[in-house]
Specification:
- The termini are far apart.
- The protein contains 17 helices and seven strands.
- By secondary structure, it is of the alpha/beta class.
- The longest helix has about 35 residues.
- Strands 2-3-1-4-7 form a five-stranded parallel sheet, sandwiched between helices.
- It binds 2-acetamido-2-deoxy-beta-D-glucopyranose.
- The site of 2-acetamido-2-deoxy-beta-D-glucopyranose (NAG) has 5 residues, from helix 6 and helix 7.
- 2-acetamido-2-deoxy-beta-D-glucopyranose (NAG) binds next to helix 6 and helix 7.
- It comes from Fistulifera solaris (Oleaginous diatom).
- Keywords: Signal.
Length: about 350
């Protein structure tokens, strides 16, 4: 077993025990609460488990997508409606490669980093092309979200028929507010115990530095991180969004990246899209003729409250980690003892039978 799978299988088991305890509590409370909040909780568990197991739950039928190649390249940043857009693209039959797909294929991460270096330093697209071919071979037809969005232009260069979808919010201030908020909410992934359990989660920032010369920030204990328990940390001040000048830097990056896309791509290859506009512009841009869909509401997923639940679950799992591990060890011991006593009694039976 390699380093990663050892960590993930151990964590999965620990999380499963924790999840069972929590689900028991949730089931008890369900009588008073509505169905909705429970399914949100279940969804949160699924997210956490998927995340640790690095399994992407949003696969579509592999056969239907295979060999179509990359068709849609997401250039929008996280918190610009990418999750709702992902849902929409899945409805249109796409298989989407995003941050979770990068984590699922952890062997891709060093390749993305190498591809970024080669592209930035020598405009050498060899590694990116090889990686793209491997991704396409798995049936992916779209990329979305930060940090894959940073590759939108070189990927567009490699696939001249692919279209670039730049998701945006109403304005950059609003986008940054949401990005900062979600970084506060989910930034704990770089803290204990998650950094022990899932490894370093800093490749998005590394890619940002390589491709966009974005200065590296470092969230440190105790300035940015609060440590209520030796194994449990809370990131109260993520340096990447909270340090002085970071807001201006992020907004400048967003504006500059959009401008570069507009200058590089012909208008029919680029759509600047706000999910509030609904299906119509997206369907037109992708050349999909579907009147029924056009009338429907655009998907609205991954709102803040479901991530809040994910965070809550992760905090409970993290704070109680020694308890989950002890419970797991205890049950393993009970099962082993039960097995031993079964073997001993079976042996005794055999002996008795022989004597008789
Ligand atoms: C581009 O990069 C690859 C490795 O990533 C290397 O093998 C190749 O020689 C490079 N091409 C040029 C023209 O430098």
């Amino acid at each position: 077993m390699n380093h990663y799978s050892w960590k993930s299988s151990y964590t999965t088991t620990a999380l499963l025990v924790g999840s069972c305890c929590l689900l028991a509590v949730a089931a008890q409370q369900q009588q008073q609460q509505q169905q909705q909040s429970r399914s949100k909780l279940a969804g949160a568990f699924e997210f956490v488990l998927d995340f640790v197991r690095r399994k992407h739950s949003s696969h579509i039928d592999d056969d239907s997508a295979s060999n179509k190649g990359m068709q849609v390249l997401g250039a929008g940043f996280a918190r610009s409606g990418t999750k709702s857009t992902e849902e929409a693209l899945k409805i249109l039959g796409h298989k989407v490669y995003d941050t979770r797909s990068m984590l699922e294929h952890s062997e891709h991460i060093p390749r993305w980093l190498r591809a970024a270096e080669d592209y930035k330093q020598y405009h050498n697209l060899t590694e990116l092309e090889a990686l793209l071919k491997d991704i396409e071979a798995e049936g992916y037809t779209a990329t979305l979200d930060f940090p894959v969005n940073l590759f939108a232009l070189p990927l567009a260069e490699l696939r001249p028929n692919a279209k670039v979808l730049f998701t945006v919010r109403d304005n950059e201030d609003k986008w940054f507010e949401s990005w900062s908020d979600i970084t506060h909410l989910m930034g704990h992934l770089i803290c204990r115990p998650w950094k022990w359990l899932i490894g370093n989660f800093d490749f998005p920032e590394q890619l940002l530095t390589i491709l966009e010369d974005f200065p590296r920030t470092h969230s440190q204990y105790p300035e940015h991180i609060y440590r209520p328990l030796p194994w449990f940390e809370i990131l109260h001040h993520p340096a990447i969004v909270d340090d002085p000048g970071q807001k201006e830097r992020w907004i400048a990056l967003h504006q500059d990246f959009l401008k570069r896309c507009q200058q590089t791509l012909p208008p029919d290859r680029l759509l600047v899209f706000n999910v509030k506009q609904g299906w119509a512009p997206l369907l037109q841009f992708l050349g999909v003729d579907n009147d029924a869909l056009r009338q429907q509401d655009f998907p609205n997923v991954n709102d803040r409250s479901s991530l809040q639940t994910v965070r809550w679950v992760m905090d409970v799992v993290a704070a109680g980690l020694p308890l989950w591990i002890s419970l797991q060890t205890y049950f393993a011991y009970r099962i082993a003892r039960c097995g031993v006593s079964m073997i001993t009694s079976a042996a005794a039976e055999t002996k008795k039978a022989k004597r008789a």
